[in-house]
Amino acid sequence: MKPETIKAIFTNLLFVIGVILMITGFIQGTRTVVKLAVFENYPLETWEETKCEQYPYVAAPVDSEKTTPAEVNPRVKEDCKAQLATERKVKMTEDIVASISFLVSGATLVYFFRRFILK
What we know:
By secondary structure, this protein is mainly alpha-helical. The two termini are 20 Å apart.
């Protein structure tokens, strides 16, 4: 193989990878914007959303049958809801950073290798 052929394959491959990264970043960014616009709270995975309802809130054994575990220790449920709000913010930040990173890295590859493609 000639060096020019190897260079052409390499630059074309990096250009295509850049386009794929840009498309992935755009799709992830669109998903993040739609989640922010549609949902009141940023959505988490299903098991994360329902963990405060499934978590055992009992600090001590329940004495009567009329007392529910949430009534025994309501502070634990409040702490779980606060932790859930923090997890929502972290998830939203991670989604935004991932989409911007893919978009910028893809745009950078496309920008630098487009001149080789358009020759």
